[in-house]
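Hey all, sorry for the wall of text incoming. These are the two entities for the joint prediction.
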Amino acid sequence: MTHNTLEEKSPLLPAWKYWYWLVIIFNVLFIAFMYFYFKSI
Amino acid sequence: MTTLDWIVLGMTVSIIIGYGIYKTRGSKNIESYLLGDNEAKWWTVGLSVMATQASAITFLSTPGQAYHDGMGFAQFYFMLPVAMIIICITFIPLFYKLKVYTAYEFLESRFDLKTRSLTSGLFLIQRGLATGITIYAPSIILSSIMGWNLNVTTIFIGLLAVIYTVSGGTKAVHVTHKHQMIVILTGLFIIFFILLDRLSNGGSFSDAMLIAAANQKLDVIDFTFDWNERYNIWSSMAALFLFLSYFGTDQSQVQRYITGRSIRESRIGLLLNGLMKVPLQFFILFLGVMVFLFYQTHKAPIFFNEKVNEKLYNSEYADIYNEIEEAYNENFDNKQNLHASLYEAARDNDHSRRQALETDIRRLTDIEMSLRSDAKTIIKQYDSTIETNDKDYVFVNFIIHNLPKGLVGLLLAVIFFAAMSSTASELNALASTSVVDIYKRNIFNRGSDKHYVHASKLLTLFWGLVAILFASVGTLFENLIQFVNIVGSIFYGTILGIFLVAFYFKKIRGHAVFFAGLIVEAFVIYLFFLDIVPYLWLNVVGALGVIILAHFLQLIMGKKNGLKPEASTHI
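and here's what came out:
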């Protein structure tokens, strides 16, 4: 097996929790934008 | 289809599949064949996950769904990003820590062999049935609308997927997925710009959007709670369970991300899917709304499978069918006049007039729907075996009649690739589970690496032939797609419940979860026959049922059977 280790720290990248928030915030903003844009027509 | 279309279709399919086979030939060990040597980078993982989920029916049905019912189906995917995050946090680290080949292997390390075998068995039943549909569904639509032979289409799509999956295993699936997704996304963008161009010809794009709004095609979120309404904001919560099961416990998806180069690449790959899926689904649905708008200025056929229309024109029902069509055409002309008035009212900011016109437009749309329904009644009288739900034909009908030469071939390649990409992942997963969880673990564990590579190839071929066979007799079953979706919901909940217990309830042990799984599965099947719970909610009942019952059984059984420590897995 060549699975890599669980450790994956990189000084260039933010911690995982920020990536998760990015995904959530992007989707919430996208859905809200589409909802209000379509509603405004 | 013109010669140019055939050339484009043939070249696109043969180049991408030929390259996939050439690039991944000669896997000599099981790790290379089933895990692709853990070489996949994050974009390969992400595209492969997306290609696996997006079957041909996604591209054929979804725009047709928006054409008829608007954008509401988008709600179904709202919780998908949350599912991706839960899987990144909980599932992926455990799969990597135990270095598993299949998701079910983890269950033996956490519980025992019987729980692993039960869960992999449930997966094989469910996925084994569904793979045939992945091939059958686009074949029936394409053969019907293009006049191709159904069996030849089915065998062609199925056999191509079987050839490259058998040849290169997981690596071939990944290499072809990347290129297939690029062709699929390119094809969809081409259609978008063509539609945009055609809509602008009849008036401005914002004018067209007024008609979409008047026909309630742009209502994205439905906040009303209706148990029986399939798509509203509340049923999207139930869909979270479906996504957790599908992405977290279905080997056809798990195999896509445990083959990542590192845990990081797998996570970014899944998060890429979490970022792109909702916008992509909006985009595909919006294409359906644009097709609807196109047909507000260009007369749509009364029934979208035009081969059926031709049959009716030459039957004893021709007179009545023509009569309905005349009324339909007259209604279309009346609508045109209202559209012109609506643009005017919007430009003059005359709100009350606009509202009145919107009501009138909706009334005419209702008449249009009722005339379509009358046409379907006549079709059923002519031949009761004809499928009268023409939603799946809307998009492909538009493609065939309105795209320039050459592009029709490219778009048909998109549909073929979508079917093959899902089929290949499913065959790859079925073979992995059969070899790793059943054959090697329960039947014969002393073979060489080469032996298991051969076994994997043979089992990929076996499942491929089962899928093609099942797809070939698909016409024998009524409403097959719905049937397979229901079968999925019946098994997914229990499988997810077992995994959730494994991840989050450390005190529960093998016997308790095994018997809870068996009892809840029987209960879910019983509930299905009682027909009192909409099938999407069977996922919730299955998952929560296993968690609750396993707790209860653990209390009764006490601490007789020990929780295994972090044992290495058996494969």
